[in-house]
Amino acid sequence: MHVDLLRAATPGCARRVHLNNAGAALLSQPTLDAMTGHLRLEAEIGGYEAAGAARDAIDDTYAAVAELVGGRADEIALFDNATHAWNAAFYSVPLGPGDRILTGRAEYGSNVLAYLQVAQRTGAEVIVVPNDDYGQLDTVALADLIDDRTKVIGVTHVPTSGGLVNPAAEVGRIAREAGALFLLDATQSVGQFPVDVGILGADMLTGAGRKFLRGPRGTGFLWIRSEVLERLDPFVAEIRSATWDGDRGFTWVDGAARFASWENSYVNLLGLGAAVRQALDLGLDVIGRRTSMLGGELRDGLDALPGVRTHDLGEVRCAIVTASVDGVPAADVAAHLARSSVNVTTTVPEHTQFDTEDRGVHPLVRFSPHYYNTGDELDRAIESVAAMTR
Ligand SMILES: Cc1ncc(COP(=O)(O)O)c(C=O)c1O
Predict the structure, then answer these.
(1) Rg of the chain's alpha carbons, rounded to an integer?
(2) Percent of the chain's residues with pLDDT above 70
(3) Which atom of ligand 1 is least distant from the CA of 159?
(4) Which residue minimizes the CA distance to atom 7 of ligand 1?
(5) I need a surface site. Which of 112, 221, 244, 339 has the fewest CB within 10 A?
(6) In b/e form, how buried is each residue of 83-94, taking b as 16+ CB within 10 angstroms?
(7) Measured from the CB, is residue 368 less than 6 Å from ligand 1?
(8) Interhelix angle for 109-122 vs 82-90, to 10°?
């Protein structure tokens, strides 16, 4: 990987040490060009006409996202964020009294809120699978908890609040054996390391464009295995997702488009396509090796500082690194780093409430390097934290 070239093609690298890729990564120049070029075209010839002219590139976005996760283009629906993509999948799962939704303790807040709402509405039950000794979803406990009441298993691959990588492939194997639907929230994992629906055994997978994929804000996607389409009841019928057959009849369109809606930001969609193509060209395995190495280096560097501790769980850890500084609130650490042009953020206790209840460590400072960060940048961040402890 030619990190210097990749940095030169990333305008933000000249201004900031950007360690907030779990929030939103820096756009590359080619992605920026794809977006500004289309915006200009819309202004010059009209929005619908510009979409017509960009048809091939628009189609390629679906193909690129499909290739990214190992699926087919007709299994992809695009959204304005990962939550809407996830909602389209989850709210389409038919549930009734006594049915069970199984999830883990690292589940993202919005997902848990949806489980709770649907449980209240339908009489389904939400069962939270405990963690194992590594602090990741306990797959033995999951297998024990599954029975024929289990209709869906919803798991967050990498939580918003730490470096944990949940054992998704094993969850997929267990779900498949039990005949339960497996909905994987891959918002923090896509673009960070290889995520393949065949290997993971997911039935539905969601992601955001703006995080490790380096796409624009306001983008998200759903991949849905074509074989499970008929087990789902899409929750919004509209002119993209369904056809009005005349009189009182309607038919869902084929494929994942039955979860989509008519209007899109084609500027954002083309930016997402450009970003995903860039990730595919670099190779997700190459990206994954570098992000994991940078995460490990940062974790070791922070742990070596007196009064500083990292808090990431799991047998496998990724590029998200969470840390605390004794006696200093996380927000103050983040503000101190910001004064040195180091972008980080802090975890929000309510966003991963189960983990907050388990460990009581949040808010933490969250560092999330990407492949374009350098060892020197990590040293600068570590030095800046060290300066606070002296
Ligand atoms: C694990 C996880 N899932 C879902 C989301 C929601 O993504 P979005 O903000 O694009 O809806 C986030 C956002 O941080 C996340 O970290």
Answers:
(1) 21
(2) 100
(3) 1
(4) 82
(5) 339
(6) bbbbbbbbbbbe
(7) no
(8) 30
